[in-house]
Please model this.
Amino acid sequence: MELSRMSPQVTVSPQIAVTDMAAIRAAGHRAIICNRPDGEGADQPSFQEIEAAAKAEGIEARYVPVQSGMVTDSDVTAFGEAIASMQRPVLAYCRSGMRSATLWSLNEAKTRPLPEILAMAKEAGYDMNGVARRVANGGKTPTDNADVHYKLVIVGAGAGGIAVAASLKAREPGLEIAIIDPADIHYYQPGWTMVGAGIFEPQDTAKTMGSVIPKGVKWIKGAVAAFEPQNNAVILDGCRVVTYDRLVVCPGLKLDWGRVEGLVETLGRNGVTSNYRYDLAPYTWQLVQQMRGGTALFTQPPMPIKCAGAPQKAMYLSADHWHRSGRLKDIDIHFCNAGGVLFGVKDYVPALMEYVEKYDATLDFFHNLVAVDGPGKIATFEVKEPEQEPRRIEMAFDMLHVCPPQTAPDFIRVSPLADQAGWVDVDQATLRHKSFDNIWALGDVMNAPNAKTAAAARKQAPTVAENLVADIAGRSAVAQYDGYGSCPLTVERGKIVLAEFGYGGVVKPSFPSFLIDGTKPSRAAWFLKEKLLPPIYWQAMLKGREWMAKPDRLEFVPE
Model:
């Protein structure tokens, strides 16, 4: 148990256990405040269990839960009221102690000067500079006096954010736009599969952020902490406030590496790799070249994930190298998929199955990776087959390629913009928010039922641009997104199964079948992936040139 004394009356700590209660009492604490919502972690005791153990020791307990990443003004008020009404000294806890320390700092803002609060928090081991502006404002979020205002604000400078900014500038050169993103580098993520197969060089998939932001667009280099759509405000880390007339939200999604026990500690060594990270894709290729025999596991977590075909692309290209070098017969390949099908659009499955059989790969469906012992070379899977009791199995490996679990970013999940699953809630045709009519979203973060791919963002950006320009002009939406997504499945070096589809898995080919038949492996599709798509991304999509991406006219009035 790690206790950090914020003041004589309040101590904070990370998650406590039922067995800690006697020690908490011995340390002099007379009350406990739980700031962690029940069910946040699998190994977390419930508040009811903590309360019962506290009562047995004569300690009062109060439940004041706060969502991770979002300490609201009402949370601070509730915390202050609890402190005032309970016996002291009080111990407040959450997962790491940070939420409790933040609540204390903001509550103390009514009576202590900012430098004193920052110093006391620092002495206790917590850096409160990120909420200094709120502390200076008496503990309240100061959205009424913005640091800066823009006609249009875009959150996220990935593929979707840069593309929609460029498409808007192409239509309305004088439109005042700011784009918010803390990253220094912009990545062409679809290229990482090719890096992991030794085809692309890593540096060819990266450019400085400043070089890709469209001319005339203001770059606010910062991270979003929260949204207040009722005030047309975005709050950044450090409590800077940016207000807007209209907002586009496209920060991508979160790769939740930490959800697989032991994974973070072993990534990039012990034969554990992933093409989902720029720095790890070269390690994939290193492992593929070095492997002479043994077991290679390729994993896919539950949907949704970005580029649903990427986990098996890594398998096919690795197996192709082993086949060409005469090693395949000595390597046991497993594709461990948390889902129950190889690919979600059935038209492309027969061609893929031919390669599964060619490479003698075992398809382990309903296998979800939950833990990795890197030094021991053991992967643990939770197996949830239909009409059977869940079970856990262990599989030894020599090489493990991991696709991490993926969610919406924390600041999206806890925001008023999110649906119950945590994704930005939009109309799937117009991509306008269902509750806030001056907000749009695109890319991986929104909840339209399409594949999360760069090709999807390429089609979504013009749709958002058209509808936003129409809104500025006082007109209704004019364009609709049909769910288009593309997944070039690299089944071997030199051949691709080009999957293209829209909402409902409807096949939507971009080329005539005599040129590229997407249901069959094609050298023309490989040429498209290797030679054409990178310059199309950098020089067309990110420049507002909408080659083969013109938005469809809206055929109906959305509900």
